[in-house]
Specification:
Layout (H helix, E strand, L loop, with lengths): L1 H4 L3 E16 L4 E17 L3 E5 L6 H8 L7 E6 L2 E2 L5 H4 L6 E4 L13 H11 L5 H14 L16 H13 L5 E5 L7 H18 L2 E5 L3 H7 L2 E6 L2 E7 H6 L4 H8 L40 H5 L5 E2 L5 E2 L16
Parallel strand pairs: 3-8, 3-9, 6-7, 7-8
Antiparallel strand pairs: 1-2, 1-4, 4-5, 9-10, 10-12, 11-12
């Protein structure tokens, strides 16, 4: 992260919450709340890739969509280039859409099947009234070449492409406006392993060529290690640990992070690694545990874990951990119950 410390912070999230109502009764009134994102804070430097990882249901995608105001935040602050956009209306957000884009997880479902790919990629330019139609078409051809698509594919429809090609179309649509910040929501999880590497390398190339900043959302830690500068580990709507990629993999301090890393397969059969098996299922975000959300599955949990929610604390060098038993300097004081 040292290379980014001197750069400006392009995005800052402070105490972000996103709760969804559970409706019930004759009048369909809220009877409970799904706490999808619950008091999350982090920042992203200009030009870096910050990744969010965690199990399904941990709140990663909701965090990304709330940052882009595709979901309205319940509370908290979203600062983009120093401006608090938390309460921006759709009309106020519209100019910012040029600078804030998203690459969706499903490379087919996110593309309009009734439009040829040239029109799909050109649409953002038309919506923002950028250039003449001829200039827009020239820009589309330029971007298609940049993402590895042949210009003669302009008039083909999404169903005529493979999964990897469709994701390249989605990437082209996201970068055609030359944005500053992109949320990449599990952009390779629906692709074959061989195609994943190609798309990841494309994203890294585009980051260098177009000076992009990524919020990369994934559950595959091997993928995240390849692309990330810093990583945030989420569980049940909260951040458990944040650190530089190398620091997180070399020195995971939160028990949840340790369990996730222990599940990564090693291709060498002679290397033995202790696997940490988490007990039980992830609790419901409608009724999360008191105190530390991970305590019901943690082998080190004590009484204090049920009584008090551990804050996300910088233990040194930009390494943040939310655990009662991890102290400043990385000193660990937990032991098995």
């Amino acid at each position: 992260m040292s290379e980014f410390k001197d750069k400006k912070i392009i995005l800052e999230v402070k105490n972000l919450k996103k709760y969804f109502p559970v409706l019930g009764g004759v009048f369909s009134r809220p009877v409970a709340w799904v706490k999808a994102v619950d008091d999350v804070s982090f920042h992203i430097y200009e030009g870096e890739t910050f990744s969010l990882v965690g199990e399904s249901g941990s709140g990663k995608t909701t965090t990304g969509k709330t940052i882009l105001k595709l979901h309205e935040p319940t509370s908290g602050h979203i600062l983009f280039e120093g401006k608090d956009i938390s309460n921006y209306s759709p009309s106020e957000m519209r100019p910012l859409r040029r600078d804030m884009q998203i690459i969706f997880q499903d490379p087919y479902g996110s593309l309009n099947p009734r439009l040829p790919v040239g029109e799909i990629i050109r649409e953002p330019l038309a919506v923002h009234k950028i250039g003449t139609k001829k200039e827009q078409e020239e820009r589309v051809v330029e971007i298609m070449k940049l993402v590895g698509l042949r210009p003669e594919y302009l008039h083909r429809y999404p169903h005529e492409f493979s999964g990897g090609q469709r994701q390249r179309i989605g990437i082209a649509r996201a970068v055609v406006l030359n944005p500053k910040f992109i949320v990449a929501d599990e952009p390779v999880s629906a692709l074959d392993a061989s195609i994943q590497a190609q798309v990841l390398n494309l994203l890294l190339e585009l980051q260098q060529k177009l000076a992009l900043t990524y919020l990369f959302i994934a559950h595959n830690l091997a993928v995240v290690r390849h692309v990330s500068d810093r990583i945030g580990v989420m569980y049940l709507g909260k951040l458990m640990e944040v650190a530089d990629t190398k620091e997180l993999f070399d020195n995971p301090l939160h028990p949840y992070t340790q369990a996730l890393l222990s599940a990564i397969p090693i291709p060498d059969p002679d290397v033995k690694k202790e696997r940490i098996i988490l007990q039980g299922d992830i609790p419901s975000p409608i009724n999360p545990p008191s105190g530390c959300p991970f305590r019901t599955r943690c082998m080190y949990a004590k009484d204090i874990c049920a009584e008090k929610t551990p804050p996300l604390v910088d233990i040194g060098g930009g390494h943040y951990v939310a655990c009662h038993f991890v102290k400043k300097g990385g000193k660990v004081e937990y032991s098995k119950s």
